[in-house]
Amino acid sequence: MEKDAYKTLTKPGKETLFKEKGSKFFGYAFPVTNEDEINFCLEELKSKHHKARHFCYAWQLGKDYAHFRANDDGEPSNSAGMPIYGQLQAFQVTNCLVVSVRYFGGTKLGVGGLISAYKTSAQLALEASSIIQKTIDVNFQVKCNYDMMNVVMRLVKDLALSIEAQNLEMDCDFKLAVRKKDYPKVFKQFQNTYGLQVKPLED
After folding, report:
1. InterPro entries, per this entry (predicted)?
2. CATH 3.30.230.30, applies to 5-133
3. What are the DSSP calls for 132-171, one per residue?
4. 174, 142 in Cβ contact below 8 A?
5. Residue 10, number of CB atoms within 10 A of its CB
6. Contacts for 177-181 with beta carbons within 8 Å, 24 or more apart?
7. Are 11 and 31 in contact (CB under 8 A)?
8. 6-25, pLDDT tens digit by residue?
9. What is the DSSP letter of 64?
């Protein structure tokens, strides 16, 4: 995968079920962008599965995959959260929460058995999700008089840019998005076009 792209979910995945020696592992994957959304998803699952013993999960946030956490929720250390996190890495997804809800079936699985079960549960949850690749875009502003509007529109079309916002009241004011790797070249092209005021925008 290219450096200016990332994978994420389009919507929550389907509920999955994995059984091992009487224990049930319900798997879930959610698209999330912050810890408030993560906590909301966990609370929803806890109210749905109020008799379950363990809610083990891992999440990864940020287009650069910079933030993550794994939680064993009472299972032996590193037997649940890290195997789930390993699947987030295997599927290369971010802005994603994967939860495996365990109902204990009476037979202990041992650490090796737990690692295998939680890994499988997370894998099934992600396989039941629709994963898409998105590009990391950079925004910049272009201002011009009305007589230059067609020039801007032609550049937008030729360079396959997207218009994030536009204001055409007094003059023409566009907020444009370009894929990160193409930004230096595209920005320069607008700068070198006579009659356009161009400036970078902070995200």
Report:
1. Impact, Impact_N, Impact_N_sf, Ribosomal_Su5_D2-typ_SF
2. yes
3. EEEE-EEEEEEEE-GGGHHHHHHHHHHTT-EEEEEE-SSS
4. yes
5. 11
6. 177/137, 177/138, 177/139, 178/137, 178/138, 178/140, 179/4, 179/135, 179/136, 179/137, 179/138, 180/4, 180/135, 180/136, 180/137, 180/138, 181/2, 181/3, 181/4
7. yes
8. 999 999 999 999 999 999 99
9. T
* Cβ–Cβ under 8 Å, residues 198 and 152: no
Domain layout of the chain by residue ranges: 5-133, 136-200
Tokens of 123: 């894998």
CA distance 119 to 85: 9
The DSSP bridge partners found for residue 143 are 173, 197
Query: What is the bridge-based pairing of β-strands 162-167 and 172-179?
Result: antiparallel
Q: Could you tell me the two tokens for 106?
A: 């009476």
Distance CA(195)–CA(40), nearest Å, equals 49
- Is the CATH number of domain 136-200 3.30.70.240? yes
CB-based contact 114:77 (threshold 8 Å):
no
